[in-house]
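Let us work through a complete example step by step.
Step 1: write down the sequence.
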Amino acid sequence: DPYCSAREIDEQIGPRLMRHSVGAKQIVERLSERHKTFARAGNADGKRWTPFQESAERVKQFIRDNPGCTMKELVNGVRLHYASPSSARSNLASHIRSGIIKGIRFDASEKPHRLYTEDDGPSRT
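Step 2: predict the structure and record it as tokens.
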């Protein structure tokens, strides 16, 4: 059969270089230092820097800088990955109470509730 052959065809083509790709430059410009250094490239552990982790770090820093802030002050004062302020408030409250965002606590002794780091603020009652 002229169309079947036991021979293998091995053709190697080098990758196209995209040194000046606009899309690649836009992606690189949006990377934070944490994206670049949080975990080894290609790690098998699934470690990566996510928008949620970025938001959680910003929340912790804001509360360290503004102990006793309200949830409204927090959401208005921090750039977060949530689609709306109301979803940010409800999700952050849930994540703080459940311990997903570690090191932060609510003080419910007054309204509106105040946010503190575990080390700051009035003692729990």
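Step 3: interpret the result. The mean pLDDT is 86.
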